[in-house]
Structures are given as structure tokens and as C-alpha cells.
Specification:
38% helix; nine-stranded mixed β-sheet; 10 helices; Spore Coat Polysaccharide Biosynthesis Protein SpsA, Chain A; alpha/beta
Length: 269
Amino acid sequence: MSGLTSIVVPCHDNLLYTALCLQSIARHTPGAHEVIVVDNGCTDGTSDWCAAQGARVVRSPVNLGFGGGCNLGLAVAEGDVAVLLNNDALATPGWLEGLRRALADEPGVGIAGPRSNWVSDDQIIPHVPYDEAPSDALDAFAADRAREHAGRGREVTRISGLCMAISRPVLDTIGGFDTRFEIGNMEDEDYALRARLAGIRLWVADDAYVHHFGHRTFTTLGEDYEALLNGNAMRYAMKWGLPVGGDPRGVMPARGFDPALDRIPLIPA
């Protein structure tokens, strides 16, 4: 697999973090790529600043939530791989090479994610040796990981929406995110489940690292993160016919992938 990577960065304000994100992409992404910034109801000049940096900008006058914003960006992506990257995250040395290597080399893998300092489950590195980001120490840590863990990783049941590399065949098969999850939480779980139903493998690349500042959009919106998570966990359980009240993550329904039900067009009909 070789070609163009479309890096989709959904934003709702927080221009400072978006600027740091785009600057990190420019520093650490030598391969062919395009940056697509989704202005998801921003009021802080995000569109103008990002356009001046050479990014493609897709605008929505209102905040469509994480899933809806990602779908806007994915709909115009031209690459053979699309990477969703939170605007409060930083690319690091080797990040994209590790993700693309997993998609190219691991049989059946169609979605790959990196390790990070602020993420859930299998992707987290709970103790990192740097104190500031961006910093030389962060870049050195990530470069060392990319070299020491080259080609290493493992199959998982979910990939966080923090940073998700998706191959073009996966986008063609399952489409975009389910917007019933509104502002955010559980839409990445839903995406992973639909992919697995379609026989697509998910992979965490140990040689790719992304720094995450964490929950900046939720903080800006003044949203209660735990309340959003609990509400969307209920929506997820009801959608898939799972028991309400338990932890539905990783539980598979007793059926296969149904394109009529499970493929979500990037542009609504």
C-alpha cells in the first residue's frame, strides 16, 4: 500500500490546540498527505487560520458532534488511507509510517491506531518519560518507540477515535460514523463493531505514538463527560440489542454484517 494519506482533523474551537496539531503534522509527516480540517461550528477563526496554513477546510455552521464532523471530512478525503486525528493530539516521529505499515502488512487489518498517553484500554502507555508537549523529549521518546517496536503490534476489538487510520476498502464497506451518538462517546466503539461484523481486523501499532492533551472539546463545551458516556452507552446497547446497564463494549451481536443496516453513508441521502 502506497499513496496519499488524508488526515482529517475535526475541530470545535480550541484554535491553539488545532495549531499545535497541524504544526506537529507538518513536522513529522514526510509522506504524501493532505490535511482536511473540519470546522465543526467554530467561532474562533479556525477556518481562516487553517486555510492560511494550506489545509483543506470543510465548514459546518453548527457543531455536528464528533461523528458528524468526521463524516464531513471523510466524504472529501482523496487518500487510499484516511486518518482521523483529534485536534488536541500531536503527531510524532514515525506515527504515520507505523499506522500505514500495519494496514499494509497485517492480513485483513483495515483499521489501525497508535499508542498514546491519554487513551483507553489496549492503546494506553500510562507512564511516559516526558513532561511537556510539544517538546524534544516527546519527539525523542516517540522516535525511540518507532525504531524499537518497528512492525510490532496486536489485534484488538476497538480503536479509539483519538487517532484512527482507516483503509479505503473499509470506508467503502462500512461508510462513516453513526451520528446518533451526538457530541461524542461510543461512536468509535460502534464503528469498530461494524467493522468486525464485516470481517475487518483492528490493530494497535506499537511503533506509532500520538500525544493526547485530552478532552479539550468536551471541556470547551462544558459537557459532563461521564454523563455523555453513560447516555451513549445506553444508546449503543439499545441499537445492538444488548443488556442495558452493563458494559456493552466488546460484546458481539449474534448476526453478521448487513449493509442495509450497518453501512452509514458519509453524505446522508
